[in-house]
Amino acid sequence: MKHYFLCVLSVAGSVLLTGGGLHPVRADDGAVSAVDPRIGTGGAGHTFPGATMPFGMVQVSPDTDMKDFKHSYPWAAGYQYDDPTILGFSHTHFSGAGHSDLGDVLVMPVSGDVRLEPGDAAVPGSGYRSRFRHATEVEHPGYYAVTLDDYGVRAELTAGQRVGWHRYAFPKGKPAHLLLDLRPSIYDYPGKVSWARLHVAADGTVSGCRMTRGWAPGRVLCFAMRFSRPMVGRTLYNRETDVLYKGFKGPGNRAVDQDAQNGRALEAVFDFGKPDAPLMVKTAISPVSEANAVDNLDREGQGWDFDAQRAKAQEAWKSALSIMDVDGTADQRTQFYTALYHVMLAPTLSMDANDEYRGPDYEAHKAKGFDFYSTWSTWDVYRAQQPLLALLRPDLSSQFVQSLVAAAKNSPFGLLPVWSYQGLETWCMIGYHAVPMIADAYLAGVRGFDAEAALKTMVHSATYASYGDLADYMKIGYVPIDKEAEGASKTLEYAYDDWALSRMARAMGHTDIASEFERRSHNWRNVWDPKSGFMRARKSDGQFRMPFDPASAAYGSDYTEGNAWQYSWYVPQDIPGLISVMGGRTPFMAKIDTLFDAKVDPAIFKNVEDISGLIGWYAHGNEPDHHVAYLYDYAGALWKTQQRLTQIMQTQYAVRPDGLAGNDDLGQMSAWYIFTALGFYPVTPASGEYAIGRPFVPKAVIHLGNNHTFTMIAEHLDAQHPYVGSVTLNGRPLETPFLSQKSVIAGGELRFVMQEQPSR
Q1: Please, are residues 483 and 494 in contact by the beta-carbon 8 Å criterion?
Q2: What are the residue boundaries of the Glycosyl hydrolase family domain, all occurrences included (predicted)?
């Protein structure tokens, strides 16, 4: 996922080791200590190292820069590992997004003189930002700490569901201040803040809101903040310089006299004298109102025991990560549990303590009987992240489905989320991929939601004519490129979504709906060009668009963040049909070989930032290719799938800050890793089937959400034995290279015996 320009066009650590051997380890403290939140914070990945709870609403994390949106791509999570300075600590962040926003409520502890501008990272002392060293950073699930070298301040962060907790130890004898800047934002630009307000109550509570014109235009984020010691002074600023008329002044002739400010460029400095103990700060957020933020703080921000809150956060992560017990080397465990950690960062709770949330109609609504979650990168997470959570946490999966359906009910269009956050829609990316997410959950046995209402909403989303030219798709069976950009990709993705819808409808007994959408699922054939051997975009007159270059990729072209080489495999619902049109198994496999083995200059994609992690034409850093290595299974060459998976795992994942290719995309890249490490993958979500690959950890015990246990064991697994010799399920050999979802849900044992040479 993905990129601003595409969105416009689419509108449309240490590790617990057991001396020398591999022994069963319960995934409790060992799992937590194995997580390294730095993975993905350098270069690609776009993850953040700060503190949050599993699926928590607040993500309090350091921001090393907030640049103009034209140059912000590397800072999509606010933090870049190679940056020399920290700008401050803000309370909202995406994990692994390709486009971005957020970075709300930025605070910076300052000792000594206060500067009101961020300054230049290359010029120490030019602003309020501070230099730091990685040697002083500590990152654990739910906790982050760093020393701000320019101020001599030790900063610590932890989190609750809706409250960010800060602890700042200032140098003795120096004035202590906290700067609050409501101006900057991740993916910034002049004028992004439409309006903000700031208020200091008589009891010292600081609260406010700001509205931004960002990815989700008109988004409002409110906050409430309290301090562990009383202020000895404060100054509120409205630093607008380009407004001709500001109205009349309120009470107070000086900034230090004012209790409130309104405007588009608000800052505040809170003074705390020369404290002899750390200053603690608690900040609650709300997507609905200032009053709700105060209420969230009242309910969830009790007391001033920072260490107790840190322990609560660690306990929450211990509980979340203990869903799997994984054996392996230090690097294997770190990679695995960090991936699981990233999977559990989104979607995020987007509902206040009083059950109110903001919907895509910009109005406040109340959730009844469920928690409302948002932050939906559906184009990414339907592939593996949501199918994984449907297995691991069916209770949460039910909440997710209810949230999706509620969002559609509140939508002015009645549509399921496409790419939404804090309840608001961005219309980024393509397809109606909330459909397969719901279908896969239902077919995996997730219940507790109104399936009839969900199906009705799914049908509406799949038939809303003006969305992505569904009108032509429904009329002529494809999306014509002369009417809608990226017509080839949209046709292919709509066809898969239709198939998933038909699967759920049939399981529910709605054969008429099932038949109609099953028919539509064959529309992929309408963009297949037998002459070139690629999927291509057609014009309204039925002709393929010319000229054609299968290597060409550009935002708004025939394809979405890809080219013909990367998209021509996207028929997960009819792989036998795809093999047939490509000439049979041998030509099919030869073409996949060409995909991986081609010599490709990465510069060809210099203008499409999301296409990365290249192995030949295969781009693991972006999602359309994620199933391709498993396609050899369908043609009978299991050993080739195993070979390609080894190649991908060795080149695209590592225990380093730059150890994630592409963007983690709200956990999709990490979910791919987890499934693949376990030895199977959901090539076609909603099919009830996984393709067998090869394992990358020696043992994993999955504590499923239905109280069953599924164990994967890989005998003789090491670098010299990368191929699968045999696979048994509950002691019986698998007859095909596929594993049913039902057999996993039922619990049991999947055992691989690894060997040195491939079984051809």
Answers
A1: no
A2: 292-755
Q: Which residues of 454-483 are buried (b: 16+ CB within 10 A; e: fewer)?
A: bbebbbbbbbbeebbbbbbbeeebbbbbee
Query: Cα separations (Å) of 413 from 288, 417, 449, 584?
Result: 21, 11, 21, 43
Q: What are the tokens at 220?
A: 């409002």
Locate 409 and state its tokens: 């009910």
Q: Answer for the pair 63, 186: CB distance below 8 angstroms, yes or no.
A: yes
Cα distances (Å, whole numbers) of residue 324 to 142, 222, 669, 705, 729: 19, 36, 18, 11, 19
pLDDT for the residue numbered 251: 84
- 334, 321 Cβ separation under 8 angstroms: no
What's the count of helices (H) and strands (E) in the chain, helices before strands? Answer: 20, 38
Question: Per residue in 371-397, pLDDT tens?
Answer: 999 999 999 999 999 999 999 999 999
Residue 633 identity: D
How far from 385 is each of 524, 648, 695, CA to CA, in Å?
25, 18, 18
Q: With beta carbons less than 8 A apart as the criterion, state whether 459 and 519 touch.
A: no
**Does residue 529 contact residue 543 with C-beta atoms inside 8 Å?**
no
Q: Quick check: 211 and 263 in contact, CB under 8 A?
A: no
| Lowest model confidence (mean pLDDT) among 391-400, 604-613, 628-637 | 604-613
pLDDT in tens, 697-710: 999 999 998 999 99
What DSSP element (H or E) covers 195?
strand 193-200
Q: Does the structure show a pLDDT above 50 at 226?
A: yes
pLDDT digit string (tens) for 535-566?
Answer: 999 999 999 999 999 999 988 899 999 999 99
Cα angle at 205 between 280 and 219, to 5 degrees?
100
Contact (CB, 8 A) for 672 and 678: no
Q: Is 125 left (phi over 0), alpha (psi -120 to 50) or beta?
A: left
Cis peptide before 682 (omega within 30 of 0): no
**Residue whose entry in the numeric block shows the structure tokens 């109104």:** 450
How many CB atoms are located within 10 Å of the residue 247 CB?
A: 7
- Tens of pLDDT, residues 450-483: 999 999 999 999 999 999 999 999 999 999 999 9
Structure tokens at 68: 């103009």
Task: Give residue 257's pLDDT.
Answer: 75
In angstroms, the CA 524 to CA 537 distance is 11
3-class DSSP assignment, residue 396: helix
Nearest to 738 by CA among 629, 634, 584: 634
Q: Which burial class, exposed, middle or buried, applies to 719 when counting CB atoms under 10 A from its CB (0-12, 13-18, 19+)?
A: exposed
- The region, left, alpha or beta by phi > 0 then psi within -120 to 50, assigned to residue 666 is left
- Walk across the sheet containing 206-213 and list its strands: 138-140, 143-148, 153-159, 163-169, 279-286, 217-227, 206-213, 193-200, 260-263
